[in-house]
């Protein structure tokens, strides 16, 4: 579903991604781990289409199409979803309006009939229950005055409502207490399906206790330096990232 | 004799004084005459005067405007405008057409004892109370010429007196319409006084018909006694070929609370000044405003807050959305006098420029003579928040709809500060029709 080849990206004068290769198939859950500043969030935003980054080399194929050639909203409409590490507060736009606008924009793009008010309300009710959120939050402005945990839940709620094909979770566990982490993970797990791929970007392995990955990749210095199964995450938890740095240099030197 | 731009006003004034001579009390004739002399001395402000630098009022104010002595209401225009202005039939309503009170369109519901809601012309006829003192508005401020001009022609407007302890549950809606043909001018004068611990809400609406361009020169004077509470709204919907110059003067005593909501949509040029004198302790004043000029419109918003005594809080939020060739001016003065320790004053002015040709001049002006105070001010001028646009687009929302959502949200923030449902709904409707959100 997602094929990243030799991806290089820079922000102003700094090269952040230095040749990423990654292949994610439908139905799989991949975890991308790595120390701070390794380029994890950049990778997530490059896939979502953030315009602050310049792609200098490489290609990304999504569902057989050139992802990097698509507008931000086109990517979303084609099924790419990024759950933000820092969700944006939008004062004056209600969650409900925002969600309905998003769903119908995507449907319009895909030439599908628009969602009816009744269907929307029913769907929203079901997903709110899944994430243990109160419906009064939907009348409030997008993320405004939400606690850190509420913002993260709201991201997963949006994901549940939009039913993407490729979901990228950027540090979704940061700022969550253990109860919230469980609820959010359950929300993500409910979306696991053979047609859907999920990429979990995280610094810590604790999220992976709840969202168990098929594959784990370690990103350091803008490259994937190791890949393995879920045991790699446990090894990192045990030894920390420091031992990898030597490995990275070795790779770079070779 | 050299013809000046004031000749038309002078001629009109002479005629006005003659017509009024039979009925006006002597003090009023003198007051008007003195004001006219003052206006002639001051003249219409030019751009050389700092406070009018960005607002070339002379181009519009120096027209031969006619003071309307009697109104016909023959055409259906006035009634149609009235329908547009109406907010809620449960409100007390005073309607003025070209400066004259129209009793058949006004409504007064049952009032608590002692409450006075009437028109100034009737009060003048009865020569009641301390009108002479109240109409002698001494001011050294920048709108002095227009204040003098208003006083020279002072005749009608709203007079509201709420006695001590009375809570008025229905808002009072004042509607000012300009409908007579020709280049007309009116000078409404509103006097509002709230006694100790009383509470009221007032809405002023200004509308007019399309034509040759008219001029509204309004003044509202507000006195709030100890612990009084007033919610004041102004909805400026003048025709886009007109000139609107207005000032609101508020005098607050201990523990009183004043909230101003100013919404500016109409006029070719609109200059609005709000002067708050906090003459007591523990006072709260909130000034919120939204101005949305498009086309060739110019909107000049000025506020001045005088913190004269200790422990007062003021909050000010003005937002502008400017499109096409529109111009905006914001000037927010805050004076913290020497006695005003423990003052907490917050001011924020945010402008959103939707076109490369739109311009805004913003100037916060703080003068602080006390040492134990908290004063903050911030001004931002910019385009839409890129982060928010990205966030919305990354959920599939098109760039165009994302922009609309953010513009609406920017303005809606001020609208949601309005507590009276009928006023809020009215504003939401306007917002939706100009910067509306499509049904999604």
UniProtKB/TrEMBL annotation, chain A:
Keywords for the protein's UniProt record, in alphabetical order: ATP-binding, Nucleotide-binding
Signal peptide: none
Coiled-coil regions listed in the entry: none
Highest taxon above the source species: Bacteria
Molecular-function annotations in GO: ATP binding; ATP hydrolysis activity
ABC transporter domain ranges (all copies): 2-246
Stated name of the protein: Fe-S cluster assembly ATP-binding protein
Source organism per UniProt: Aporhodopirellula rubra
Source lineage: Bacteria, Pseudomonadati, Planctomycetota, Planctomycetia, Pirellulales
Automatic annotation (TrEMBL), chain B:
Residue ranges constituting the SUF system FeS cluster assembly SufBD core domain according to the UniProt record: 181-410
Similarity field: Belongs to the iron-sulfur cluster assembly SufBD family.
Protein name per Swiss-Prot or TrEMBL: Fe-S cluster assembly protein SufD
One BP annotation, GO: iron-sulfur cluster assembly
Annotated organism of origin: Aporhodopirellula rubra
UniProt-listed SUPFAM superfamilies: Stabilizer of iron transporter SufD
InterPro entries to which the protein is assigned, alphabetical: Fe-S_cluster_assembly_SufBD (IPR055346), SUF_FeS_clus_asmbl_SufBD_core (IPR000825), SUF_FeS_clus_asmbl_SufBD_sf (IPR037284), SUF_FeS_clus_asmbl_SufD (IPR011542), SufBD_N (IPR045595)
Record domain SUF system FeS cluster assembly SufBD N-terminal: where: 6-173
């Amino acid at each position: 579903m997602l094929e990243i080849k030799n991806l290089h990206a820079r922000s102003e004068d700094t090269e952040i991604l230095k040749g990423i290769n990654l292949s994610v198939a439908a139905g799989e859950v991949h975890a991308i781990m790595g120390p701070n500043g390794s380029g994890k969030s950049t990778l997530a935003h490059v896939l979502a289409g953030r315009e602050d980054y310049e792609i200098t080399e490489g290609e990304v194929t999504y569902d057989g199409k050139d992802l990097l050639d698509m507008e931000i909203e086109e990517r979303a409409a084609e099924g790419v979803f990024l759950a933000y590490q820092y969700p944006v507060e939008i004062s004056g736009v209600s969650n409900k309006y925002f969600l309905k606008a998003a769903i119908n924009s995507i449907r319009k793009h895909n030439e599908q009939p628009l969602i009816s008010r009744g269907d929307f309300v029913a769907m929203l009710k079901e997903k709110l229950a899944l994430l243990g959120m109160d419906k009064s939050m939907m009348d409030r402005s997008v993320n405004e005055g939400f606690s850190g945990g509420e913002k993260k839940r709201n991201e997963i709620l949006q994901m549940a409502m939009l039913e993407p094909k490729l979901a990228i979770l950027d540090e979704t566990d940061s700022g969550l207490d253990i109860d919230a982490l469980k609820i959010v993970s359950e929300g993500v797990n409910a979306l696991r399906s053979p047609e859907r791929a999920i990429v979990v970007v995280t610094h810590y392995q604790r999220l992976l206790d709840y969202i168990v990955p098929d594959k784990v990749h370690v990103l350091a210095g803008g490259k994937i330096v190791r890949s393995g199964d879920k045991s790699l995450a446990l090894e990192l938890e045990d030894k920390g990232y420091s031992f990898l740095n030597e490995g990275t240099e070795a790779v770079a030197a070779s | 004799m050299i013809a000046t731009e004031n000749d038309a006003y002078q001629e009109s004034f002479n005629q006005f004084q003659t017509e009024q001579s039979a009925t006006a009390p002597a003090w009023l004739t003198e007051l008007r005459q003195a004001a006219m002399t003052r206006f002639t001395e001051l003249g219409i402000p030019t751009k050389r005067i700092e406070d009018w630098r960005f607002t070339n009022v002379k181009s519009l104010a120096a027209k031969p405007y006619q003071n309307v002595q009697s109104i016909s209401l023959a055409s259906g225009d006035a009634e149609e405008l009235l329908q547009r202005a109406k907010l809620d039939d449960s409100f007390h309503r005073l309607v003025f057409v070209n400066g004259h009170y129209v009793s058949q369109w006004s409504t007064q519901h049952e009032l608590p004892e002692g409450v006075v809601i009437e028109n100034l012309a009737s009060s003048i006829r009865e020569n009641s109370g301390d009108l002479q003192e109240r109409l002698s508005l001494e001011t050294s401020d920048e709108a002095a010429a227009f204040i003098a001009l208003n006083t020279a022609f002072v005749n009608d407007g709203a007079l509201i007196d709420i006695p001590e302890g009375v809570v008025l549950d229905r808002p009072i809606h004042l509607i000012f319409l300009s409908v007579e043909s020709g280049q007309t001018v009116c000078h409404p004068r509103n006097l509002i006084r709230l006694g100790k611990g009383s509470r009221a809400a007032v809405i002023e609406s200004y509308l007019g018909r399309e034509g040759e361009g008219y001029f509204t020169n309004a003044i509202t004077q507000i006195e709030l006694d100890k612990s009084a509470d007033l919610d004041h709204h102004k909805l400026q919907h003048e025709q886009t070929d007109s000139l609107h110059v207005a000032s609101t003067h508020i005098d607050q005593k201990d523990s009183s609370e004043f909230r101003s909501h100013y919404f500016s949509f109409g006029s070719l040029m609109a200059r609005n000044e709000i002067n708050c004198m906090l003459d007591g302790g523990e006072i709260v004043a909130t000034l919120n405003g939204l101005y949305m000029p498009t086309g060739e419109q110019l909107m000049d918003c000025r506020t001045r807050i005088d913190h004269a005594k200790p422990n007062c809080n003021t909050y000010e939020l003005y937002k502008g959305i400017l499109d096409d060739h529109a111009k905006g001016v914001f000037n927010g003065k805050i004076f913290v006098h020497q006695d005003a320790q423990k003052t907490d004053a917050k001011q924020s002015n945010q402008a959103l420029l939707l076109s490369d040709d739109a311009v805004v001049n913003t100037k916060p002006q703080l003068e602080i003579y006390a040492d134990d105070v908290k004063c903050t001010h911030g001004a931002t001028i910019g385009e839409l928040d890129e982060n928010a646009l990205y966030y919305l687009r990354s959920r599939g929302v098109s760039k165009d709809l994302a922009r609309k959502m953010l513009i609406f949200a920017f303005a809606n923030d001020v609208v949601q500060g309005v507590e009276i449902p009928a006023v809020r709904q009215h504003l939401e409707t306007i917002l939706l029709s100009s910067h509306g959100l499509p049904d999604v």
